[in-house]
Amino acid sequence: MPGEPARLTVEVLEVLEAAPAPVLYDLVLERYGNYVAVFDTDRETVPVFTTMGTLVDTAHSPDAIGDLINTWENGGAR
User: Fold this and answer.
1) CB 28 within 8 A of CB 46
2) In whole angstroms, how far apart are CA 20 and each of 10, 13, 71?
3) What pLDDT score was predicted for residue 4?
4) How confident is the model at residue 70 (pLDDT cuts 50, 70, 90)?
5) Contact 36/49 with Cβ under 8 angstroms?
6) pLDDT tens-digit profile of 49-64?
7) Whole-prediction pTM value?
8) pLDDT of amino acid 39
């Protein structure tokens, strides 16, 4: 009917081919609640992101990740 939103009904969904999954050889992603740390075998520093993709900052070592997250959650380094 005119003026009403269009409706679409899907009766069958067929997967034609699986999507290729990217392979991270030298990177390890580790989740800390709402944060993700990216460990790279070629670096000593560890970038930390929110799960939404915002860069929090870069920790100088893995031991500093917790302090970095605490500072971010308390309103620092934005």
Assistant:
1) no
2) 25, 19, 37
3) 86
4) very high
5) yes
6) 999 999 999 999 999 9
7) 0.64
8) 93
Residue appearing with tokens 């392979």: 23
Q: Which two tokens stand for residue 33?
A: 């609640």
pLDDT of residue 1: 67
Of the candidates 22, 21, 23, 46, the one whose C-alpha atom is nearest the C-alpha of residue 35 is 46
Which CB contacts under 8 angstroms, 24+ apart, belong to 65-73? 65/32, 65/37, 66/32, 69/32, 69/33, 69/35, 72/35, 72/48
Q: Give the CA angle between residues 42, 45, 49 to the nearest 5°.
A: 110
Amino acid at 74: N
Q: What angle do CA 46, 43, 71 make, to 5 degrees?
A: 20
| DSSP characters over 62-75 | GGGHHHHHHHHHTT
